[in-house]
Amino acid sequence: MPTKRLLLAALLSFALGGTNCALAHDGVVTPNFSHSIPNIPGKSLVAVEVEYPPAGASTPHRHARSAFIYAYVVSGAIESQADDGPAKVYRAGESFYEAPGAHHRISRNASKSEPAKLLAVFVVDSGEQPLTTPDK
Fold this sequence. Notes:
The structure is a single chain. This protein is mostly beta strands. The chain is 10% helix and 47% strand. The protein has a single domain (2-129), classed as Sandwich (Jelly Rolls), CATH 2.60.120.10. The protein has one helix at residues 2-15, and strands spanning 28-36, 43-52, 61-63, 68-75, 77-82, 88-91, 95-98, 103-109, 116-125, 132-134. The strands form two sheets. The chain has a five-stranded antiparallel beta sheet with strand order 1-2-9-4-7, covered by helices on one side. Strand 1 (28-36) and strand 2 form a beta hairpin. The longest helix is centred in the first third of the chain and has 14 residues, at 2-15. It starts with a helix and ends with a strand. The relative contact order is 0.27.
């Protein structure tokens, strides 16, 4: 299992533009898009697809202080909780966001029998690293 987690952390690092990123995760993270925003100097848009197997989850983590994150559930159902807000299940077609500096306490597949997929889009200061830091 440690090798799988290291591989997933490396994939997420690659997905986020090669930045330093470590996140223990039971699933697959695939790069989707990364580009500087031409009319907003110093900002970049980075998108990754996060696929959770049944009962898969990420460890609690924080994202870069500048990162505003928009998340869209592509398939299945994702349970998410940021900061001290309530945990909520989002189903395919629903979306949510995380404010800059938020503590992402829960991020997991809400189903124990079906996979789930999420598209996460970061608006972040260009070059800010790491983009994701797991809790110690």
